[in-house]
Write a structure and sequence with these properties.
Radius of gyration: 18 Å
Structural class: mainly alpha
Shape: globular
Number of strands: 2
CATH architecture: Orthogonal Bundle
Number of helices: 6
CATH superfamily: Ribosomal protein S7/S5
Distance between the termini: 19 Å
Length: 165
């Protein structure tokens, strides 16, 4: 590092659910500084999930609100391991390493947003709601991405001894 590391910013919880994770998700969802648009998308998504809970379309009896569904979906997507490229003795090796705490949430939220954006033909709130419900049921593109990362780390387990340099 060249200088000292910038201090971590404290994120204020969002207005409706008083959750810092929801506020962080809104910040990741935001484009071109349009925070109110990102909030509207996420809150519409949560309203859609609430209506699915009331009609019984979400499997699981313990979910009474959209925030519980969101938290569980994010927990399902969080990766445990990832691979990092390292040059050792003239060759590049993919070395499996555990994921740091802040990076876990970044990857999970990023994969959920990317999976929702890649779907076509629906408003973003609907696509996001579908992806969150799919992640809740351990399905969908975000879960597939997590499984791919874990599979890559498992396949390169033989190079784990390079991490202890």
């Amino acid at each position: 590092m060249r200088g000292k590391q910038a201090p971590k910013q404290k994120i204020k919880p969002d207005g409706r659910y008083n959750s810092t994770l929801v506020a962080k998700f809104i910040n990741f969802l935001m484009q071109d500084g349009k925070k109110s648009t990102a909030q509207n998308v996420l809150y519409d998504c949560f309203d859609d999930i609430e209506s699915r809970i009331k009609t019984g379309k979400i499997d699981g009896k313990e979910y009474t609100n959209a925030l519980g569904v969101f938290d569980q979906a994010v927990k399902n997507v969080i990766p445990q391991l990832e691979v990092k490229s390292r040059r050792v003795g003239g060759g590049n090796f993919q070395i499996p390493q555990p994921v740091r705490g802040d990076r876990r949430y970044f990857l999970a939220l990023h994969w959920l947003i990317t999976a929702a954006k890649n779907k076509k033909g629906k408003p973003m709130a609907k696509k996001l709601a579908e992806e969150l419900v799919a992640a809740l049921n351990n399905e969908g593109d975000a879960i597939k991405k997590r499984n791919d990362v874990h599979r890559m780390a498992e396949a390169n387990k033989a190079f784990a001894h390079f991490a202890r340099y």
